[in-house]
Amino acid sequence: MKKFVSCLLAALMVLSLTVTAFAADTSSYVYVWTDDNTKLLHVQHYAYDVVGAYMDIDDRVSIKGNSLYDMAGVMIANDIMTYSDNKPTVALNNDGLYFLSKDGELRYMEHSTDQTYSVANVSADYIELDIESMALRAVSGRKSWNLWNLTFSGNYKRNDDPVVTKGAYVRSYADKEDPERIGYDAYSNGKRILTTYCRISNVWQQDYNVLLSSTCKGAKFCGYTSAYSIYLYDMQSKTVYEFRLDDKFKTAYTVLKGETVYAFERNDAGFISAIVTDKGTHAVGTTTTNPATPAPNPGNNGGNNGGGNTTTGNITSVRNFLDKSMAYQNKTLVGTLSYANGSLSWKGNVIYTGNDVVDFGVTKSGAAVFTKSNGDTYLGGTKVASSVNQVVYDDNGIAVAVKTTGNKTLYLEA
Predict the structure, then answer these.
(1) Which of 96, 103, 60, 62 is nearest to 79 (CA)?
(2) I want to staple 408 with a disulfide (CB 3.0 to 4.6 A). Which of 175, 290, 337, 404 is the partner?
């Protein structure tokens, strides 16, 4: 169900154009590209942002080998069928994400960050795409099935990430705003103490505001040791450098020189366990040494390099599309409020069923608000107003108020 007020405004804007102007196409589309640095293939779905009035990525996934990663860089599955341009096995469209397992199982998720998936009643070899790379139908042998005619059922838990998620560990994730930027969060005693970002050749240590390198090529050549040092590989000098926490990452110490590094291997906790080079594999100590003094402002997400992989406060922005509202706390997706096939869902849970929802959004505290065609408006499941004809958003897309037919503004939260 499209948001009525936003669509009406868009229609009025189009009518106001002169006869020599062309209206911008707001149809959804998909863009597929390969990052030459990380060797990741990205599949990005663009939809019209009704508040910002521009096309924006509302979901994206990345593929490496037989592994599929969600919008936050977390693994969805490690058993997908090999992707190729002629036989794509992963696709996004307006309805959601489709992907094939190695044995031909066709799976579906409404959004890449959902925690479960459903399975179709057919097996397939690949997914046919239209000219805009939108999923059209799954194909098996000589027979084809239209996606919209398939039945998907079941609630199957997505990949269990083997990486430790308590005590001392490292989590890596993709920045939703910049597909080439990878974030690394290091945890000690279950608390995040360090955040480091890699983008193309730059490595930025967030907590101490230090640019560690401008020549390190992306996430492949960066990581934490179990002593919370940061290892970088400089390709020009063929040198692996160590930046240590105890001197606030100010000094580059040489660890290895004169060898071409292929990769940093990591253990289950995400710490570097070995350096793989053209001359062999060099082991790195993996006994965790918890720092005596934590980094300054642990958990800080401030500044232009902001990021982080935890949610600790209020909603800071919401991206409102025609059929969904995606709520964020800084760079982290907190939850999606979506309306499809007569069901309004918040964080994957149905909160209302009916074909009469005309507008919706998410408040600063993370509550879902929606208005029905009769003007009744609900906040967090409780009716809060009547005779409403519009949800009002602030500059960050957060739902802050509603307007009644008498042009009265009612604020949703203090």
Answers:
(1) 103
(2) 404
Beta bridge partners of 353: 343
> Which has the closest alpha carbon to 338: 318, 317, 361, 355?
361
- Claim: this prediction has a pTM higher than 0.70: no
User: What is the side-by-side strand order in the sheet with 368-372?
Assistant: 357-362, 368-372, 377-379, 382-385
Give the model confidence (pLDDT) of 205-219 as tens digits. 988 888 888 777 665
Note whether 187 and 308 are within 8 A (CB).
Answer: no
What number of helices (H) and strands (E) belong to the chain? Answer: 1, 37
221 band by pLDDT with thresholds 50, 70 and 90: confident
4: part of which helix (H) or strand (E)?
helix 4-15
Residue type present at position 213: S
CA dihedral 214, 217, 220, 226 (to 10 degrees): -20
E strand or H helix that includes residue 9: helix 4-15
- Round to whole Å and give the CA distance between 8 and 18: 18
> Could you please report the per-residue DSSP string of 328-390?
EETTEEEEEEEEETTEEEETTEEEEE-S-EEEEEE-TTS-EEEEETTS-EEETTEEEESSEEE
CA distance 207 to 295: 7
CA dist., res. 171 & res. 12, Å (int) = 46
Residue type, position 233, single letter: Y
* Mean pLDDT across 351-362: 91
Q: How far is CA 247 from CA 198, 215, 230, 252, in A?
A: 21, 22, 12, 10
Q: What is the DSSP string of 31-88?
A: EEEEETTTTEEEEEEEEEETTTTEEEEEEEEEEETTEEE-TTS-EEES-BPPP-SSS-
pLDDT, tens only, 370-389: 999 898 999 988 888 888 88
11 pLDDT tier (thresholds 50, 70, 90): very low
Tell me the C-alpha distance between 383 and 189, whole Å.
43
Write down the pLDDT at residue 88.
93
Q: Are 50 and 1 in contact (CB under 8 A)?
A: no
